[in-house]
Design a protein that fits this description.
The structure holds 2 protein chains of 2 kinds.
Chain A (H helix, E strand, L loop, with lengths): L20 H23 L1 H24 L10 H12 L6 H16 L12 H19 L17 H7 L6 H6 L11 H13 L6 H16 L4 H6 L3 H8 L10 H21 L5 H11 L1 H7 L12
Helix pairs in contact in A: 1-2, 1-3, 1-8, 2-3, 2-4, 3-4, 3-5, 4-5, 5-13, 8-11, 9-12, 12-13, 12-14
Chain B lengths: L24 E2 L5 E5 L9 E2 L6 E2 L4 E4 L8 E2 L4 E10 L5 E9 L19 H10 L12 H5 L7 E6 L8 H8 L1 H15 L3 E7 L3 H10 L6 E6 L8 H9 L9 H4 L1 E5 H13 L5 E7 L7 E6 L4 H7 L8 E5 L6 E2 L13 E6 L17 H5 L6 H9 L3 H6 L10 H5 L6 H21 L1
Parallel strand pairs in B: 1-14, 9-10, 9-12, 10-11, 13-17
Antiparallel strand pairs in B: 2-8, 3-5, 4-7, 5-6, 7-8, 13-14, 15-16, 15-17
Helix pairs in contact in B: 3-5, 4-8, 11-14
The chains are: A mainly alpha, B alpha/beta.
Chain lengths: ~325, ~450
């Protein structure tokens, strides 16, 4: 109803901080750059291939699912590409690409788009896809035995330190494990690189480091209580990427600070339960997914009082 | 410096350096003024003049019988051109008196000089009521109603936070008109029986803090409270909490909490009303913006069209800009340069389009938690926006939508571009209606 000669108006506030969804997703990608580079350095073409395939699959999956569901494309926000990158980092370099592709499709398609799109997904898409493939592995193996691994480049891989620990073998030194160690998933190759990335996210105010700290502290305490080496537990497996990047995922973590602390403690305890009592497979992923399911409950329990709420005298 | 603050809020770039060192100048007198009859909370005024009438500076031209209302006065000498009904961008439709300015003598000349010490409380309240003094920071609540308390109130809180970006009118008033401010605060404190007057000032105004500290050194009544620079420090409930430490309860009026909050400009206007009988016909307006040719703080007559002000400051063309009356967080973009400055217009800002928040397509809430962390009222703006989006009024009530003071920090912070505040503003009247219906049932 703009009249002739009227100036265009809009509503307050007229200022905005320059932090958008795209900015946030780009920041996380930048934060994952160090670990991606380290894994490419270690595993060369295998890592590049895995990352490229997963990111491409993620993009295609999102476009296709949104098309089918009659929604506008949202590739520009970068969340699909990010999920693809996460899935790749959760896989071992020699993993069958078919499995990684399926994990990506399940993550982006089922865990995210079918739950209503970014923001409405209850589970971390990348972890959901990865864990779904672990659970479905027997099914796929039955259908296509042997055809799954198309890895052409020969690389030397070692068992992850956790497997070594489980097998009673010699452990690498703390320093080796911290800076860079070949074994396990791409993301397990360098806690240092992950910490650098998380530091960047902290600097960009995307995450608060207190939540990962709570997870680390819980893991360390439980390790000490059960007579294990806390440093090995902190540096090995998916704990670093899980605590720094997955448990700090905006969408699938509790919204308040106190809720996030509870979330962190529970994840820490669950991780140790998995590691101590169960065979060493993706304990961190399972722990975070299990806690994702409890987020609404945690949010409800930790809801804070409004400023104007009558306070008890 | 030790500062007081509140939980929540965020640093918003404050852009005050354009005008914070410029002393108050007089705005030139426009050719015509447009004076709306509804410039306060409460009932609108009925015009007391008609087209063709001659009016003089300070003459009352609008009044109302209602208790919560404030009379309106002519800011100029001239002839009433017309009384027309105008639509304002604030959403108000109000009768407005348009006056053609005539003659050279356009200053208010006081006919009395009273000593407030010899005046009774009733006389002071009446003088403030007669002068049409309202809250000049934005709320526009009639001051006479506000200070007419039955029981003594512990604190008078002077709001010198000026947390809105760009604005410096209160800052300059605190520095340049400190004596009148202090005298005004003493008058109001006496009326409301306050034993203590807290002046809360954000520490980005060190000269104001220093000036007022020096001038109130030997006065027990005053305490200057340096506040952290954080938006929205200057909102009433936040101000009370920051300066006095008292909790504000839902639905409680300021007086029940034992605190009355007044704006800096309002306090000075109240002083002038009591001592000189001067009605509220002019105010300090910050004229600013990155492309403003001659920004400044101007004593401006109520009713001055924005276009005149911009011309005075060297601006001929506003293409590519939004013209905002008030601050950039809670002000209102104007659709015409004929829009007049009214009693609560703190600023006239010309904001380039590239600086202005554009309402981009928005997505689902991604639960980043920034709005929850920053909401000064400790609400869950994300929840409110989702409930409002789906018209879940039950949910809105449960999550205290009516607590929202519309500071806009949630929208400022939202990475998903959600128009949280628009959702809330649309839903509020419906929730209010439902509450009324429930109460009457």
């Amino acid at each position: 109803m703009s009249q002739a000669g009227r100036l265009p108006v809009s509503s307050a506030p007229y200022l905005k901080d320059n932090y958008y969804l795209e900015t946030a997703m780009r920041d996380v990608m930048i934060a994952l750059l160090p670990i991606s580079l380290v894994s490419i350095m270690f595993y060369g073409a295998n890592a590049v291939f895995l990352i490229a395939v997963c990111m491409a699959t993620a993009a295609v999956t999102e476009v296709v699912f949104r098309k089918i569901m009659g929604k506008k494309p949202s590739l520009y926000d970068g969340s699909a590409l990010l999920t693809g990158l996460f899935v790749a980092l959760l896989y071992q370099p020699t993993a069958p690409w078919f499995s990684a592709v399926m994990a990506t499709i399940i993550g982006v398609g089922v865990a995210k788009e079918l739950s209503g799109g970014l923001g409405l997904n209850r589970f971390n898409p990348a972890l959901f896809g990865r864990v779904a493939m672990i659970l479905l592995a027997p099914v796929f193996a039955a259908f296509a035995p042997g055809a799954l691994s198309l890895s052409t480049v020969e690389v030397v891989t070692q068992a992850s330190p956790l497997a070594l620990l489980g097998g009673g073998m010699d452990m690498p030194s703390y320093g080796e494990m911290f800076v860079g160690f070949q074994g396990g998933a791409l993301s397990e190759s360098s806690p240092l690189a992950l910490l650098i990335g998380a530091g960047y996210l902290k600097y960009r105010k995307h995450i608060k480091l207190r939540v990962p700290m709570v997870i680390f502290a819980t893991v360390a305490v439980v390790a000490l209580m059960t007579g294990q080496d806390p440093i090995y537990h902190l540096l090995s497996g998916g704990l670093m990427i899980g605590a720094l990047f997955m448990a700090t995922d905006w969408v699938t973590a509790p919204i308040t600070y106190s809720g996030r602390v509870i979330f962190g403690v529970c994840i820490g305890v669950l991780v140790m339960v998995f590691r101590v009592f169960l065979p060493p497979t993706e304990g961190v992923a399972f722990s975070i997914l299990i806690m994702n399911a409890f987020v609404p409950v945690i949010d409800k329990a930790t809801r804070h009082l409004a400023f104007l709420e009558p306070k008890e005298a | 410096m030790e500062t007081k603050s509140f939980s929540g809020g965020a640093h918003v770039p404050h852009f005050k350096s354009f005008t914070d060192e410029l002393s108050i100048q007089k705005m030139s007198v426009p050719e015509k003024v447009i004076i709306p009859m509804h410039q306060s909370l409460g009932a609108p005024c009925e015009p007391l003049v008609k087209a063709g009438d001659k009016v003089t500076v300070g003459q009352k031209i609008g009044d109302s019988e209602e208790m919560i209302s404030a009379p309106v006065h002519s800011s100029v000498t001239g002839t009433v051109r017309e009384v027309e009904t105008l639509w304002y961008c604030s959403g108000d439709i109000a009768k407005s008196v348009v006056i053609d300015v005539e003659g050279e003598e356009q200053e208010f000349v006081p006919s009395v000089k009273r000593d407030p010490a010899n005046m009774s409380k009733e006389e002071i309240v009446a003088a403030i009521k007669e002068a049409g003094i309202v809250g000049m920071g934005g709320a526009s609540f009639p001051t006479s109603v506000n200070i007419n308390v039955r029981q003594p109130v512990d604190y008078l809180v002077l709001n010198g936070a000026e947390c809105e970006p760009f604005l410096t009118c209160d800052h300059r008033a605190m520095v340049e008109r400190a004596d009148e401010l202090i005298a005004g605060a003493e008058i109001i404190s006496r009326v409301i029986g306050a034993k203590k007057c807290m002046i809360g000032i954000e520490v980005n105004k060190p000269d104001a803090i220093k000036t007022l500290k020096e001038k109130t050194e030997d006065k027990d009544l005053f305490e200057i409270v340096p506040l952290a620079v954080k938006y929205p420090q200057g909102f009433k409930s936040i101000m009370i909490k920051s300066t006095t430490g008292r909790d504000v309860k839902r639905g409680a009026r300021s007086a029940e909490i034992g605190c009355i909050v007044r704006n800096i400009g309002t306090t000075i206007a109240a002083y002038e009303a009591v001592v000189y009988g001067k009605p509220l016909i002019e105010r300090i307006v910050t004229v600013s913006g990155p492309n403003m040719k001659q920004p400044g703080n101007f004593m401006t007559k109520i009713g001055t069209p924005v276009g005149h002000i911009l011309k005075h400051c060297g601006i001929e063309e506003v293409e590519g800009h939004k013209v905002v009356l008030g601050g950039p967080m809670t002000g209102q973009a104007q659709d015409t340069l004929d829009a007049p400055v009214i009693k609560n217009s703190t600023g006239v800002l010309m904001l380039p389009n590239e600086m202005v928040r554009e309402q981009l397509p928005f997505s689902n809430c991604v639960r980043c938690g920034k709005c929850v962390e920053r909401c000064p009222m400790k609400l869950y703006p994300n929840q409110l926006s989702m409930y409002a989006e789906t018209e879940n009024y039950e949910g809105l009530e449960q999550w205290n939508i009516m607590d929202c003071m519309e500071c806009g920090i949630c929208v400022f912070s939202c990475p998903a571009n959600r128009p949280i505040l628009e959702f809330i503003k649309v839903a509020k009247p419906v929730v209010k209606k439902r509450e009324m219906a429930k109460r009457n049932a």
